[in-house]
Amino acid sequence: MVWLEIVRAGARTTVQDRGRSGHAALGVGGSGAADVVSHDAANRLVGNTPDAATLEVTLGGLRFRVHGPTAVAVTGASVPVTVDGTPRPRYSTLHLSDGDEVTLGMSDTGLRTYLAVRGGIDVPAVLGSRATDTLSGIGPDPVRDGDRLPVGTRHDDLPAEDLIPPPAPAADPVELRIRMGPRDDWFTPASRAALAEHTWTVTADTDRVGARLHGPGPLHRARRGELPSEGMSTGALQVPPDGMPVLFLADHPVTGGYPVIATVVSDDVPVAAQLRPGHRVRFRRLL
After folding, report:
1. One domain, residues 11 and 98
2. Count of domains forming the chain
3. Domain membership flag for residue 84
């Protein structure tokens, strides 16, 4: 049996997989890896099946010891990786021996790093998923110092290639594509135009639920009154009364009562999930 001994968990390390879809009617969100592209890449490098769980590490700082021989991969945000003090590459298959200690330093670009271990993190599933939902508290607890995480058997053969090129760092400002609506008619024409014309900045108020953005001025409503609560989706740009949009990420609420002026296309959500406080964003409207 292979397991991981967590020596240092880091600030916000959670277990994540591809989420628990299909439970919105029960008030349960999808959750899952905020950057599913990096999550999937880590699993591919160790031959895991798509449903295998990884560790999502925010800003780095994870250190763990393996018990039993295994293979791991580190993807996502750029962090220094060492095995028993020796630097090792990201986006590669790292073969480990019993007792090896792996350290992820602090990220210099990007926000979330993914650690896959061959076979997947084998914590109990809740509603068909091992994902930690930080908003609802559903799923495994956040990872803590001293935890012992079992490793499962959700793997196939190791891939023929044990190294893939890391993606280029996100531009600053980064461009995110959006589709307007469903409630863009709640905003003035000038505010609808300003969403794409101005540069927005990710504030320190960002987590797995969403990222609050700051711009040169608030988005003004064209309507008064309250909007009945309606369903929310990952990538939604919800605008609270202060007029500054909030970009919903993996652990967003299932419903909300503030209008959604636009939605980031699903292919760009993983990019958005890697934006650190201070990163700038431009939105490009799609027809």
Report:
1. yes
2. 2
3. yes
